[in-house]
Write a structure and sequence with these properties.
This protein is mostly helical and about 300 residues long. It has three domains: about 1-80, no CATH class; about 85-130, Double Stranded RNA Binding Domain (2-Layer Sandwich); about 140-290, no CATH class. About 55% of the residues lie in helices and about 10% in strands. The protein has seven helices and eight strands, in the order αββαβββαβαααβαβ. The chain has helices spanning about 15-20, 50-55, 105-115, 120-130, 135-230, 235-260, 280, and strands at about 40, 45, 65-70, 95-100, 105, 120, 270, 285-290. It has a three-stranded antiparallel β-sheet. Helix 5 crosses helix 6 (about 235-260). The longest helix is centred in the middle third of the chain and has 98 residues, at about 135-230. The relative contact order is 0.06.
């Protein structure tokens, strides 16, 4: 039997069809082109022979009440609407709950993934669940969560007000500090910039020297590669060139290791001088360069 497709809503009977009663044709809710031979009162669905057989084999539906053709109701039953369809099988309604995996699923999911699990047919347990402690807990959780949200929003509002007030206070304090030390800051800034410029120049010279040395090593490697390539057809000549190359590369590697150890630069950070408050009175530097942050070199 094909996997269950989305149930098609049957056409409403006309007045003349309703009077025919049980003689009116019914079609399978799953296979809309096949005439129904039975009706499941629990699922509120008409079924063909194949669907009826499948319905009786599934654990969660095997005990449902099945009507045969001669016991169909006179009026065509409308399709019972589901809350939502299965995300794994979009054409199937969610009708089951797997207790072991804690998953809502359709009949197809039960057959394919949860056949050996403890299953519940939702229409059979829904009413008891609504009256049970788990559903009552849900209401409590919703109420508690709402209270937390309200409290959080109030706290955020208070914090926003405090943040703006704090900013205003600290800006005013900052302006007072600036007015007291602005004359001295310009001079001290030039001194610090000069010191940083000197360190920058020292590091630049070192790095440029290392750069030149590494480029020379790179050129030597290129020459070695060219010589090896030019003698690769003559094994004897290649042997001689390769032996010389090995000696050169061994010496080159030693130089490279020494050079790469020197790659880096001086780390420094401008730190606020703790004597800042005395800066106007005794002209003490408002800041100093603290070296060696995370080591001299990175």
């Amino acid at each position: 039997m094909e996997e269950a497709n989305e149930v098609v809503v049957q056409k409403e009977p006309t007045d003349s069809e309703a009077t025919v009663g049980s003689m009116q044709a019914r079609y399978c809710s799953v296979c809309p082109d096949v005439e129904a031979t039975s009706l499941c009162e629990d699922c509120h669905e008409y079924m063909c022979n194949d669907c009826t057989s499948y319905h009786k084999r599934i654990t969660i539906t095997r005990n449902h009440t099945i009507r045969t053709t001669d016991k169909f109701p006179a009026v065509l039953l409308p399709r019972r609407q589901s809350v939502e369809n299965c995300p794994q099988h979009p054409k199937e309604e969610i009708k089951c709950y797997c207790q072991e995996h804690g998953e809502l699923c359709c009949v197809a999911c039960i057959v394919l993934k949860h056949k050996q699990c403890a299953q519940f047919y939702i229409p059979d347990i829904a009413e008891d669940f609504r009256k049970g402690p788990e559903f009552n807990k849900l209401s409590t959780y919703i109420k508690d969560s709402d209270q937390l949200i309200v409290k959080g929003l109030v706290d955020i509002d208070n914090c926003l007000k405090a943040v703006n007030a704090l900013k205003a206070d600290e800006i005013e304090k900052l302006r007072k500090y600036r007015a007291a030390i602005i004359a001295y800051l310009d001079r001290r800034e030039r001194e610090l910039q000069a010191e940083m410029q000197q360190m920058c120049e020292t590091d630049t010279v070192l790095l440029r020297e290392l750069q030149t040395s590494l480029e020379a090593c790179q050129s030597n490697l290129t020459d070695i590669g060219t010589k090896l390539k030019s003698h690769e057809q003559n094994s004897c000549e290649l042997y001689i060139v390769a032996k010389r190359a090995l000696a050169q590369i061994t010496e080159l590697q030693t130089s490279l290791q020494e050079m790469t150890k020197k790659i880096g630069y001086q780390r420094y950070s401008v730190m606020m001088d703790p004597r800042l408050q005395k800066i106007v009175k005794d002209q003490v530097g408002f800041a100093e360069i603290e070296r060696g942050i995370a080591g001299k070199y990175f």
